[in-house]
Amino acid sequence: MKIDGARILITGASRGIGEAAALELARRGAHLAIAARGKKELDRVSAEIEAETGTAAVVVPADVSHEAEVRAMVADADKKLGGIDILINNAGLGLSAPVNEIDPNDLRYVFEVNVMAPHIGTLAVLPGMLQRRRGRIVNVGSVASHISTPTLGGYSATKFALKALSDALRMELQGTGVGVSLICPGPIATDFVAHTRGDVDGRLPAHPVGAPPAEVGRCIARAILRNQAEAFVPAYFQALVGADSLAPQVMRVAGKRGFAVATKFAERYL
Length: 270
Prior knowledge:
Blueprint: E1 7-11, H1 16-27, E2 31-36, H2 39-53, E3 58-61, H3 67-81, E4 86-89, E5 95-96, H4 104-132, E6 135-140, H5 153-172, E7 178-185, E8 197-198, H6 213-226, E9 230-233, H7 237-246, H8 248-269
Helix pairs in contact: 1-2, 1-6, 3-4, 4-5, 7-8
């Protein structure tokens, strides 16, 4: 699908992956609506886009944990852009706790943001896309959409759910002109940990680690242009997921100790 001239709504666009994707797509000629809770940060991103491209993004403040705000966000963006060709469901947050310590309120909230908000947004944009027989839903999942690890079971549960919805919807939309992409980042150098619910101390890297957010922005652009069903960032994580599928016992044996070692490695070298 073409990006140049496409009307795109991006959630969670005030920082990190969402901001990087907005800048990447704006440079490629997209007309953008950017959404997040903080208007001040959205205004900053919009100004940066205008400085680079000459055209500001439409700013749509919204708290996607509330269904009414998701629907209002889509309606506002649709009106101001004159339609939505591509929806990028990027807003999300983490959850860190052993399964037997997960606060049900935390799990419920993270499901609202990571699963229900993308679903409600998708329901709101699909009628217009189907009528025009053109469009794309881009869901930002995670390597955790495929592999669950100690203390991240709750987070993985939301990303597994998002993958399941993406996979089913992709098949259901065959022949309609509307496609679905699932983007699966590994560790990305954002402030993800700072906004993670639960107890992260000693369980997740203490500082941002991993690939730069711009790499995910480029991956999202490629997935749109190539109509990709699924893409990994960095790409080598696809091999890790494949290896886990072929030999899941390796991850099971590594278990808690293996994950702790991987966390320390990431803190020191990534």
